[in-house]
Amino acid sequence: QVTLMESGGGSVEAGGSLRLSCSASGLIYNYCMAWFRQAPGKEREGVAFFDTDGRPRYADSVKGRFTISRTSAKSNLYLQMNSLKPEDTAVYYCTAVDCYSGAPNYWGQGTQVTVSS
């Protein structure tokens, strides 16, 4: 069992920054950690994750603006979001995924990020 809890969402104007945090508990060692997001009317999409070599990977839409980080034990996950755009508006989810397929196995409840023009 894995429990994930996100925090740090909020409302910000375009160009602003937010830092999302995720607290993880349970048997997380067999998973890779990732951030997903879902905008209204759209499917959830992967935003950032660590690959099996520990390298951060990003969706093209957020490269250069977002930075994913974690503690060594993977008990905490972070997403620093800079230069936010209105299209970044979504519910952001901390996710424990299969390291090889990327398929999500556990989700947090999500934290809302709203970016206004």
Can you give a write-up of this model?
This protein has 117 residues and is mainly beta. The protein is built from no helices and eleven strands. It has strands at residues 2-7, 10-13, 18-26, 32-38, 45-50, 56-58, 66-70, 76-81, 90-97, 104-107, 111-116. The strands form two sheets. Strands 2, 4, 5, 6, 9, 10 and 11 form a seven-stranded mixed sheet that branches. The N and C termini lie far apart (40 Å).
List keywords for this structure.
4-stranded antiparallel beta sheet, mainly beta, 7-stranded mixed beta sheet, 117 residues, 11 strands
- State the helical fraction: under 10%
β-strand number? 11
- SSE pattern: EEEEEEEEEEE
Shape: globular
Mean pLDDT: 93
Number of helices: 0
Oligomer: single chain
* Gyration radius, in Å: 13 Å
Beta-strand proportion: over 45%
Distance between the termini: 40 Å
* Low-confidence runs: none
Task: Supply the helix-strand structural class.
Answer: mainly beta
The major β-sheet equals: 7 strands, mixed
